[in-house]
Amino acid sequence: MVSRFFILDKADPGDISFHEFEVTGSTYEPIGEVFKNGAKANCANYEALHELTTICCMCNDSSIDFNEYKQAFEKVGEATETALIVLAEKMNPFGFDKSGKSRRDAALTVNHGVQAMWKKEFTLEFSRDRKSMSSYCAPTRAAANTKLGTGPKMFVKVGP
User: Fold this and answer.
1) Domains and CATH numbers, the chain
2) CA dist., res. 72 & res. 88, Å (int)
3) Strand ranges (DSSP E) for 3-57?
4) Contact 78, 57 (CB under 8 A)
5) pLDDT (0 to 100) of residue 143
6) What's the CA gap between 28 and 30, in Å, rounded?
7) Which Pfam families does the entry mention (predicted)?
C-alpha cells in the first residue's frame, strides 16, 4: 500500500520544494486519510493531485473487489497497480460523492468517476525497456470542469 508520497511544490533555480503526504490504511480497503504536516489534507487544493489521481486510474489495468465471504477487499491484477487505485480512492480530489452507496460501490467511486471523465484511445503497456505505462485519453463532457484542460492528454505512470 502507499503510505507516503510527494508532489512538486516549486522548482526555481536553486530552490526546489515538495509537498509530502502520509496515507493511512494498510489493506486493499480504500478507507483511510491523507495527511500533510500531521493534519488532514484537502486533496482538492492541490492541482497535481487531480492529475495524479487521473494517472492512478487511467494508467491501470487492475482493480479491487469486495469478497462477500471474507468481508474483505482483494486485489484484481497487479499489487502495485491495485495500491494506486486504493490511493486514488483515498485522495478523491474531485470530490466524488460516496454517500448512500454500498461498501463495494463506494470503494470504486473515484475510479469510475475518473474513467467517465476520459476515453482511453490507446495504451502503451508497461515494459522493462520503457519502464512506463502511457494512456492517451480524450476528455468527455464529464471532464469539462476539471483542472486538467480541455484537450487530449498522454498520462504516464513510470516505474523505478
Assistant:
1) 4-117 (3.40.1110.10)
2) 19
3) 4-12, 15-23, 34-36, 39-40
4) no
5) 65
6) 6
7) Cation_ATPase
Per-residue pLDDT band for 151 (boundaries 50, 70, 90) equals: confident
Specify the pLDDT at position 123: 92
- Residue 64: CB partners within 8 Å, gap ≥ 6? 28, 30, 73, 74, 75, 76, 82, 85, 86, 107, 108
What was the pLDDT predicted at 41? 98
23 φψ region: left (φ > 0), alpha (ψ -120 to 50), beta (else): beta
CA 44, 97, 38 angle in degrees (round to 5)?
40
How is 55-89 classified by DSSP, letter by letter?
HHHHS---EEEEETTTTEEEEES-HHHHHHHHHHH
From the DSSP assignment, how many helices (H) and strands (E) are in the chain? 4, 9
Query: Residue 43 in 3-state DSSP?
Result: helix
Chain segment 14-65, per-residue pLDDT in tens: 999 999 999 999 899 998 999 999 999 999 999 999 999 999 999 999 999 9
